[in-house]
Write a structure and sequence with these properties.
Blueprint: H1 6-34, H2 37-44, H3 48-55, H4 58-71, H5 83-90, H6 94-121, H7 127-153, H8 159-164, H9 170-181, H10 184-192, H11 197-211
Helix pairs in contact: 1-2, 1-4, 1-6, 2-3, 4-6, 5-6, 6-11, 7-9
Length: 245
Amino acid sequence: MAYNNSARQARAQQTRRAVLTAAALAFLEHGYGGTTIRGVAEAAGVSPETVYKTFRNKVTLLKAVYDVTLAGDDEQVPIPQRPEAVAVRAATTPGEAAAAYAKLSRMISSHIGPLLNVVIGARGTDPDLDAFVRQIDSERLIGAAMLTRLWHERGWLKAAMEMGADTGTPADHARDVMWTLNSPTVYRLLKDRGWSDAAYETWLTATIVATILDEQAANATPRNAGSTGRSLGSSVAFTVDGSHQ
């Protein structure tokens, strides 16, 4: 008879969820420096050893909290498979793509904004934390590159992207513009000015159209049509932060 460990797995998942919830509250309330493994363990009702065994150290715990906060839940559904990300890839016009991407960016930024303020505010206090911040920026760049390359292949980039690239391709130039626009710093600055999430989404949609996408290119012939055989329904998966599979 096969051993059924489903109850054990359920308890482990429950413990992990309790630790992550306690850690998220601690990071937001006390900051990175003021959060301790012992304090998180006490709030979660487990031993410090349990936290260390599961997450190893405080930076790894923060990364785990970040991943759950980014998605908005701990469901085992990668962000590229969620409806907001699917809608970006499925867009059939530049305007539709800009609106879908702005909606995705709004979702992720609203989820992660407060925690990211904690992360960025603690830069310079821990080498591992600094490496994590660099990783976040790198992942955003990867996500922006995947997205703008897809738009370039569809013939949707503005002519200014062709002329404005000092180095690299027009898609590279568009990537850097997008990477700047979706920066959590931009989101935080606008929120600090009293902007609502809806206003941010509207602004980002309009700014993407104004700076990157050509709304008149809806019927453009894909640049790789007839050459690589790659469909406009590409399975390329991306998110604001570069999560992909």
